[in-house]
Specification:
The chain is 69% helix and 7% strand. It has 512 residues and is mainly alpha-helical. It starts with a helix and ends in a 9-residue tail after the last strand.
Length: 512
């Protein structure tokens, strides 16, 4: 190409680029101005919207503030009204108080005047009374103090007589109701419970078929009998009694072990010291198992659950103990059943009562020699083996050696007395029985006015004969109560003692 053409072309190109650039800037400027106008319009619209929104919020807030101001004004108005009412009320109360104060002042003045008038009248009355007293002393010949003492003594005797009448009426009413209910409960309890009795002894008799067996039991130079006595802790008496060997021991368990061992030895025929020791050891184990089985069976029969195994063993040992001729286990079972019946009648828990009745004499079968009385020792054992507090208290308090804290305690005490005091339950040593009767008669004979005393019905009734010239009819009731209270406080006896005071007047004449 020619240089001129090239230069023209470049010049055209540069001119075209310049024109294009100018046109581009013009277009850009137009677009920019258009965008700016749109942005200004949009900003103006946003500004108007925001102004409207702010104005609306302002109006809403203003309305809320006006509402709150109106509520506060209303509350202030109400409070102001209340204060005005209270002020009015206080003003009225103040006026009332002023009026009452004026009335009280007036009343006080009247009372003062009346008090002065009464004081004057009292002085006049005292003067008149003194004059009358002087006249009465002159007429009666007695001083005022003497007359007062005489009047007091007469009123005292009259009051004592009336009080005794009231006491007798109250006691009679209480006896009619209480005795009737008590007899019903006790009789019903006794009728529903009956057990066998046993005779207390310290010997057992072992029967043999022939006297030839006696020689085998004795052994050469008595070695067999000595071995048996040493192994069982008993005394064996072989005498001229035909077909019998006497086993003597105060421990019934030892006697039972010896009797069973003798039975096995005689049945087996082999009797020598080694065999004796073997059989005795075996029998001891059998008796111990029998004791535990008896305790379990007793608890099951009475429906008593949860007893400690050691308590079950102690209950089983009761089978081999007796008290005043009464088998201890039978006595415990009878007491338990009586307690359950009586507790049911009184609306108490019969299961707890039966449990306490069964365990009340566990202190009589100790494994060691305790220094405590059997009731307290039994309570200690029950507490040791996790019995409940009311059961422990019933055991410890059934002979009044511990304070009664539950209703079970008097029930157990009463049922123990019923079981032991009913006819045929126990036998009593003759000397102790006679001494108790003599003590009853001597105690009543010590009272003034008593001429004769008689203990009858095996000591369950005491008849007291008093002199008709020494004690009045009303005083016989007092004497009967005093004797009963003294017997209750100072003596120990089964059941109850009835005190009958007899006062009679006899007039004797002779027809000739």
């Amino acid at each position: 190409m020619e240089p001129l053409t090239i230069i023209v072309s470049l010049a055209c190109l540069l001119v075209g680029i310049g024109i294009g650039y100018v046109l581009f800037r013009y277009v850009i400027k137009q677009k920019y101005e258009q965008k700016m106008k749109e942005a200004e319009v949009q900003a103006e619209n946003i500004k108007k919207d925001k102004l409207l929104e702010v104005k609306e919020k302002f109006l809403n807030k203003k309305a809320e503030l006006e509402k709150e101001a109106a509520q506060r004004n209303s509350k202030l108005q109400q409070a102001e009204n209340k204060l005005k009412q209270r002020e009015i009320s206080l003003n009225q109360r103040h006026e009332d108080l002023q009026r009452k104060k004026a009335e009280n002042d007036s009343t006080k003045e009247n009372l003062d005047r009346q008090a002065k008038a009464l004081e004057l009248k009292k002085e006049e009355l005292d003067k008149m009374t003194e004059q009358e007293r002087i006249k009465l002393e002159a007429i009666s010949g007695l001083s005022a103090e003497e007359a007062k003492e005489h009047l007091v003594e007469s009123m005292k005797d009259e009051a004592k007589s009336q009080a005794q009448q009231y006491i007798n009426e109250i006691i009679d009413d209480a006896k009619m109701a209480a005795n009737k209910e008590a007899k019903r409960i006790v009789i019903q309890s006794i009728q529903r419970v009956a057990t066998e009795t046993a005779v207390e002894n310290s010997v057992s008799v072992f029967h043999i078929d022939s006297d030839e067996v006696k020689g085998r039991v004795i052994g050469r130079e008595g070695r067999n009998i000595r071995a048996l006595e040493a192994a069982t802790g008993t005394e064996i008496v072989v005498d001229d009694t035909p077909e019998a060997i006497v086993i003597s021991a105060f421990d019934p368990v030892r006697r039972e072990v010896c009797r069973l061992a003798l039975h096995q030895l005689v049945a087996d025929g082999r009797i020598h010291p080694a065999r004796i020791e073997e059989v005795v050891a075996k029998v001891k184990k059998q008796v111990e198992d029998e004791i535990i089985e008896t305790g379990k069976r007793t608890a099951i029969d009475l429906g008593i659950h949860g007893l400690h195994p050691e308590l079950i063993r102690i209950v089983g040992k009761m089978k081999y103990r007796s008290s005043y001729g009464q088998n201890l286990l039978q006595h415990a079972r009878e007491t338990a059943n009586l307690c359950a019946v009586m507790a049911s009648e009184l609306g108490l828990n019969p299961k707890k009562a039966r449990r306490a009745g069964l365990l009340h004499d566990i202190g009589k079968v100790p494994d060691e020699d305790p220094e405590l009385p059997h009731a307290l020792y039994g309570a200690k054992l029950a507490e040791q083996y996790k019995e409940k507090a009311d059961i422990v208290n019933a055991i410890g308090a059934h002979h009044d050696e511990m304070e009664m804290t539950t209703l079970l305690s008097p029930i157990v005490q009463v049922c123990d007395a019923i079981s032991g005091a009913r006819p045929g339950a126990r036998r009593e040593i003759v000397e102790a029985y006679i001494k108790r009767l003599n003590d009853l008669e001597s105690l009543a004979a010590a009272y003034p006015g008593v001429t004769k005393t008689y203990a009858i019905q095996a000591g369950r009734e005491l008849r007291v004969i008093v002199g008709a010239d020494k004690i009045s009819d009303q005083e016989t009731e007092t004497l009967s109560n005093e004797i009963a209270k003294k017997i209750q406080d100072e003596m120990t006896y089964p059941g109850q003692v009835k005190i009958t005071v007899i006062r009679e007047t006899r007039a004797v004449s002779f027809a000739k």
